[in-house]
Each structure stands twice: as C-alpha cells, then as structure tokens.
TrEMBL record:
Organism superkingdom: Bacteria
GO MF term list: sodium:proton antiporter activity
Main location: membrane
Family: Belongs to the CPA3 antiporters (TC 2.A.63) subunit F family.
Coiled-coil ranges from the UniProt annotation: none
PANTHER family in the cross-refs: NA(+)/H(+) ANTIPORTER SUBUNIT F1, NA(+)_H(+) ANTIPORTER SUBUNIT F
Membrane topology: Multi-pass membrane protein
Protein name from the UniProt record: Multisubunit sodium/proton antiporter MrpF subunit
Amino acid sequence: MSIVFGITFGLLCVAGLLTVLRLLRGHSTLDRIVALDVFVSLIVAATAVGMGMRSDGSNIALAAAFALLAFTGSISAARLVEQKERYR
C-alpha cells in the first residue's frame, strides 16, 4: 500500500509544480486566483493522503476548515475582480 501512497504523493507534487507555474505565468488575475485555489486543494488532498498513510484521522476537521476558507476566499476575490472589471 505504501507504493500507492508514494505514487499519489508524486502526482500531487507534479500537479503542485504545474499549479505554481500557472500562478507565476498567469495572464490575468482570475487565472492566478484559480491557481491558488487549486494549490490549496492539492495541499488538502496531500494532507488527506498523509492521514490515510498514517491511519490517523485527527486532522480531518482542520483540512475541511482550510478547504472551506480557501473556497470562500476564492469566491470573494473573484467577485471583487469581476466588479472591478465591470467598471472599466
């Protein structure tokens, strides 16, 4: 089972690197906002995989709260960018 966890962590790391690349080279503010949201989702997924690997579910509430906070922040930022572009 540790092979599956290793492969999963490797794929999450590759996805994280691609997301950071998108964050740095994003063409618009919305691209960067989406990249940050995806990056936070990858962190939550890596935390979940780590909890599964250790058979320890003590951080589930923390991961869920972090994901909810990131989602709320992304929605708020997208609304602000939308309003800013509407007034141009």
